[in-house]
Amino acid sequence: MKTNGQKIIMIYILFVLASISPKSGVFAQKISAEPSFSFFNNHSVVIRTFSTRILTIGGINRRILRNMIRSGFMEITSTDSFETAAKKLFTPEDIIGFKFNSYNADMLDTNTAIAEELLRLFYAAGFNPKQMIFIGAEPQDPNLPKTRAVKFGWGEIRDFGSGKDRFAKVLYEVTAIVNVGTIMADPIGAINGCMKNVTFGFIKHPARYYKNGYLPYIVDIYSLPEIRNKIRINILSGIRILLRREHFNSSNAILNYRSLFFSRDIVAIDATGFEVLVRMRRKKRLPKLLAGRDFPPYLIAAFQRNIGLYHPDQVDLKLINVN
Predict the structure, then answer these.
(1) Confidence (pTM)
(2) CA angle 260, 142, 84 (to 5 degrees)
(3) Which candidate, 22, 34, 52, 21, places its Cα nearest to that of 321?
(4) Which of 16, 166, 226, 248 is the most buried (most CB within 10 A)?
(5) pLDDT tens digits for 121-155?
């Protein structure tokens, strides 16, 4: 039988081992700011910013887009300015990764505009462009400052429980992540949103895990501290959404929804995006995304792992109209 002293020593050893980076064998990268959020009264908050004027004949109204992003950040952090909101989520020492989903990006044509307006807002808020890395979408405006270049390549093999794979080196360079997904119907998981973007979007062989509704892989990968602990805010673009999982040239493949969603809870924001897909597909008389289920199984599994909340009764959705 172990004495109390021995138990204390064992706990300390386990704590030290948990702090060791599985990649390099040295103490894990310091993660700044508060990485997670708490469920207030067992509820999560999702902010939807919306404008009827976001889409114009010439493309995206940049002033409206900027105001939509600004409003979402301020509301989700309960602050009165973008600068205060950003500095509540990030520090001057952070290397911030803005992770976008490049899948069908050319068809939806919204990523570049969002990336450029995020850069403008963060730069105006006092953040150094060299502490910002854009992954999956890059600002193209030559008048904007140059940001930190992406380090290409793959890290060492990482065991995430249900599999082993290599992750992008840039994941180990960033200390904080702005997770920018897009609402898209998905043939396996029902929705390609924020969680798929920040898990399979960093892994070398994602197709290995394209089965069984992405379970348990997507939840196991997200649970890695180098991903989960770095997420500061999730943004789910619904300016244009991909309604179909096939026949992308069909007239009902893309819908102008003119919205952006913001949340600290990655499960709640994907569940909200899924409900948007269900409602809009029903209006277009498209078949159900899931047979005999109300929500994608990976969202339920993530809830069971205490990652976030998915049920509408536990998600407070707030609409902000932007002019």
Answers:
(1) 0.88
(2) 45
(3) 52
(4) 226
(5) 999 999 999 999 999 999 999 999 999 999 899 99
